[in-house]
Write a structure and sequence with these properties.
This protein is of the alpha/beta class and about 140 residues long. About 45% of the residues lie in helices and about 15% in strands.
Length: about 140
């Protein structure tokens, strides 16, 4: 994802998914640092204190304290944070979750495959898109 090696923010409460994401990013040679927050409230606190915003946030929807939809609502309502691309990466395939995510400004919505090889391909497609995409 490069973008001058800015960090990638992963908002995920499942430690197995965190490990899987780290492994997949390493496998596809993404060297950006990975910052992990276990729920939306921690992620918002991190973003508001950060000097440099991440190049992308990967967001799970189903989390305790503050879920992904609430996080998106807060980020997209914040003038400093709203341009940060947020890709929903979740197990939810509910149409309503997809609609709400895009209504709130998600840059993408991807279902987490259970199969590791397919997960690596999802991460590769996110990496390829954001490596080519020009952010303001």
């Amino acid at each position: 994802m490069k973008s001058s090696a800015k960090p990638i923010l992963l908002i995920e409460d499942d430690q197995v998914d965190v490990i899987t994401t780290r492994r997949a990013l390493k496998e596809i040679h993404v060297t950006n640092p990975l910052v992990v927050c276990e729920h939306g409230e921690l992620a918002l606190d991190h973003l508001r204190e950060a000097e440099e915003l991440p190049c992308i946030a990967l967001l799970d929807l189903n989390m305790p304290v503050m879920n992904g939809i609430e996080f998106l609502r807060n980020v997209k309502g914040d003038a400093r944070l709203r341009r940060m691309p947020v890709v929903v990466l979740t197990t939810s395939e509910e149409l309503e979750d997809k609609r709400r995510s895009f209504d709130l400004g998600a840059a993408g919505y991807m279902a987490k495959p259970v199969d590791y090889r397919r997960f690596v391909e999802v991460m590769r497609s996110i990496d390829q898109y954001w490596t080519l995409s020009e952010l303001p």
